[in-house]
Amino acid sequence: MRKVLQSARFAKSASLKKYHFGDGTNTVSNTLPFQFADVEEEFLHAAEFGDVPNVKKILAENNDLNIDCIDALGRTALRLAVKNEHLEVVEVLLEKSSQHHIAEAVLQAISAGHTQIAETILKHRRYLEMWKERRKLGDTDGFYKTAYPDSQFSPDITPLILASQKNQYEIVQLLLLRGDTIHTPHKFSCNCTECRNKMKFDQLRLAKYRLNAYRGLASEAYISLSSKDPILTAFELASELRKLSRVEKHFKREYRDLADQLSDYVVKLLDRIRTQRELELVLNKAGKHHQEKYANLARFKLAIQYKEKKFVAHASCQQRVVRTWYNGMGKLERASWPMRLSMIALFVMAYPFLVLAHVFFPSSKGAKVLQFPVVKFLCHAMSFLAFLLLIVVSTIESTKSVSASRTLESEYPTEHMNYKLYRNVYNNTVYGENFPLRASFPSVTEIMMSLWIVAIPQQDDLRLSGLTSGQSAGGGARTRDRRVPADLRADSLATVPPTPFRMSRSRQA
Prior knowledge:
509 residues; two-stranded antiparallel sheet; 29 helices; disordered N terminus; disordered C terminus
């Protein structure tokens, strides 16, 4: 009913306007003043167009004026001022506006990207009183907050969630330093009292509340400013969102998009790496964010575990993997193909002698060559090919050795007579009358196959020893308690461009 009356007022005021077209442009006639239907309409007009003196005058002359009056579209003076970025008008209206419209105005400012107005409202005395009262009552998630029909936002949308979704670093930093956080929703299958009560209250609101919270948690601004290890946080949250997309089927696409957004965010972090030292720090980080632990390619292996394909396929990660692959054989990486084939053939021919050197002289240079990843792969590949070749040769030899001249009857006549009696007594004709026999002693090929099988434990030991040496040579340590030297950390951090996380920490300090 109120909106209908406001529309009637605007129609009446429009009939009082007098226009003239003297110079070809539409201008309001200067002979007659602009007429308003009432004071509220004049007040809304002044707030919309930033007429600060007129706003102050109307407020001073009309003590009973409803400052929360609305126009035909349901917009208050405060919302009109925020929409048109009139900061001075906003400062004047904040003193007398209701709490609901102040909260709505800050969300509108954040949504429109008016950072200065949003910061002004968030730092204002009236808003701080509202914030302290809400925290005192324990209302931190806003799930049970009353939903107003004229509001543009869901009741559970907080300024921090909205600013995070919009990636407004200044607003997010201000709210985090104040103590606001985005609470991680309970698991979908949680059956605690709180979740049961929320489910009974409104099931759809609970689903939207969970989705809005994860949208804020998965934003670049929130992770960069709140997490000490953004890459680990992004990995864990993306994995959780992918699992949630399989059970929360109604919002499956939204959760998958958030997981992909986190994968893109991690790739952006990798794009900011400039030096090899910084890359070593990122890829060798192990443990939780509060633990100073480093291991060779620990973060890379974690990305494989979480199936972060974009992280694994990034050019910087692949460069580090190739560097590990050619560890100790850098010339092979840059050599021409004829040179590579020659070196590969040389290693294949020298493999038996290198194995003997590893067994009897493990500390010799020849034994250490087997610990290089590329050499070890080539030698093991040729070893398996040789074993397959031995199997083929042994099969051919056994086929040739079995003939009609060497049978059970010719070699063991007594056993053959017993076998014939058995067949006659039991009338068993399943087997033949005679059996061809293989050679009594193993052939050279079978002896070589046996030696290869016996040497398998030695090959495993060689692989483990090569892994240990490769890790120590590749920039990381096998133990997970090794710490990066202080000078390395300082140099690396000094070359990293100022990210929002470092900016926030420096400002806080």
